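Lab notebook, bench 4. Still working through the backlog of constructs that have no structural model yet. Next entry is a single chain of 282 residues. Request: give me the structure tokens for it.
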Amino acid sequence: MTKKEVKDRITDLTAIQDITNTYEQVAATRTRRVKDTIVQNRDFYESLSEIYFETQRCYQEKLTREKKYISRYSNSVGGGSVAVLLSANTGLYGKVVKEIYNQFVKDNVNSKSDLVIVGQQGKRWMQNQDPTIQYKYFSLSDGTDNLDRPIRQIYDYISKYANVTVYHGIFKNIIEQPVTITKVTQNLELKNDKGETLFFLFEPTIDKVLKFFEEQLLYSFFDQTIHESALAKYGSRMLGLDSATQNVSKILQQTMFLSTKMKHAVQNRKQLELVYSSALWE
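Model written out:
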């Protein structure tokens, strides 16, 4: 490698380091801005889900004498199942988006569920993997701003299904953004660790209360899932860019060390030439 090539490489690496630092700072800012709200909403919706599922249980008990349970929500839609992949429109989100896609494909490509892909990355991977696979595609911003209209469009499409499963990431901390599978459906299993039975008085009737939950809360659960996905991508981007920044810094240090060695080699050669020249004139 020539001296000029080393110099050009240092310039390029410095520019890359500046870019990765900038992207990392932007991701950190976005993460801080939305994290508290989304995490607080997570606790709220988990508590709300418990009430919703208990309402389902009470409704099921009401129909026990019929020896079957048919969901009100299932009766109001066309039935069937749909799996939804929340991917991304752009790159630099680390490994989480690809891991979500892999799990989505593993669980659903050979199943009877209809498929929905959100984000250009997922669409591109699916086309490369098997262009014959049928799915419905939606575009959605990777951020958390101005999402009401596109989220409503996606929900209006998937709400006709009795069972809706969403594949996305969830933010646990900066290090962990695991693949998460959320079932946005009225038929989720309610877990009561204490084995207690809760009783409610429904006003005006349990049918109307459950109908309200199904018409209002399922959209809210889906909206929360979209924002959970965005937060997980921010966290994964921070982790990936931090790793990239460290790698670039390491290579930059090695290159600068090489440049220093080359400068010393030139200086040593000049000194040897000077000594040799002086010896000839003696």
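Notes after review: The chain has one domain: 26-242. DSSP finds six helices and five strands in the chain. Flag for follow-up if needed.
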